[in-house]
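Q: Two folds, back to back.
A: First:
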Amino acid sequence: MPQTERLLEQVVNINSGTLNVAGVREVGAVFRKEFDALGFKTEWVAMPASMQRAGHLVAQRKGKKGKKLFLIGHLDTVFELDMPFTKYTRLNDSTATGQGVNDMKGGDVVILAALQALQANGLLKDANITAYFTGDEERGGKGPEARADFIAKAKEAQVALAFENAIDRHTVATARRGSSNWQLKTFGTAAHSSTIFKPTVGYGAIYEAARILNSFRETLSQEQYLTFNPGLIVGGSEVNYDEGKAHAEVTGKTNIIAPTAAVAGDLRFLTEAQKEGARAKMRAIVAQSLPGTRAEITFSDGIPGMAPTPGNQKLAALADQASRDLGLGPVVAGDPGSRGAGDVSYVAQYLDCLDGLGAPGKGAHAPGETINLKEFPLLIERTALMLYRLTR
């Protein structure tokens, strides 16, 4: 464990926000060295420069025993270079904090530590394992090539195990929600603030954006497994929003009615039918403009949903048995609504999948993200035992 924790500290202390291409590649280089030492054949799958994404690390070991495994991690975090940086810090004997410490650098280290345990006992021989660490899980690159190689290599396997953070050691994910994005733009008439609401002027772009967002909340917020979050909103006399950099600039005055506003958000869902139903309702709301305004909304697909299947449940049963045999207690499938989207969903239609096998902790995607260092080695042991049984 001391060696494992040092590896975790090393990668956490490298900023690898998705848009920090150099940082993502640096983390990938650290993990590549570890896979090389285990006898895996490694490669870096580069993305087109226009995509502005670092690429992916792939490590493979060919064999003829047991199931062909596809192990999923990711190198990037949500913490970009312009955000406050938090290094790996032990808070006490059982807790440490740092960027990506559980989502999901901790999960990547679970994979490596389990493989190192098997290698130390001579148990990797003849195993067929592909480990695939993507570089843009948190903000996926645009275009099919972003996941083309990922999907192709997954199709060669029989079982996918994904190591997004564990909610706790008794819960795994047999289903995950998908995610997509939406952009709302509203328009009004620029005029003196004293004329707002008058028939010749109308309500302005900001009131129209507020109406739409509140109607989304009133109409859709109670639907199971469906969430939609407006993560960025700007409005004023002039608005410039750079989607690629997730950055906006705005100017305006309190005595000028805003002629434009922009909102960027995400939409999370369990099935394609739920996604399309939500989009239809959102479009209908957008079309009901306030006087003197107009609005438009566009949608872009992201990660598909991962529906629960009998094959996924069999993998949960394997995790349950391994946990019980180690004296760690039972494992059950968690609520799909408790998780967002993940890379495993891209391949869920092709093979049996299980997620939530990574590092235990709290506060993912927020300052103060933590890892539970007491349960961390227990989940590494469980992973090692599962990998052993699947590759026999």
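A: Second:
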Amino acid sequence: MVVYGIPNCNTVKKSLDWLKAHQIDFEFHDFKKKGITPEKLNKWCDTFGWEIVLNRKGLTWKKLTKEEQATIDNQEKAITYLVENTSAIKRPIIEKEEVAILISFDESLYSQTLA
């Protein structure tokens, strides 16, 4: 299992703490340091929807002008933006056997899906 995120994100920290508390083995992929491919983002967008993968509540998105935000109006444009601005990816994203199964942190979903 691979957890994708950035280590200083509070939601990622909650997720990692939950996994450790439940003794679930995982590999951590810091997409700030390791980056992320358009192919991986496309898979996630196909699973969750690009509107979900693009974190519109974070500072990276909010730093854009309304005009800049308005230009990101489909999956292709979102992926182009996210490859360059990995902090705007909703996180964490958990993959099991290379299939994305969870996005963000919801303890009840983690319990149902992972425990």
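Q: And?
A: The first strand starts at residue 2 and ends at 5.
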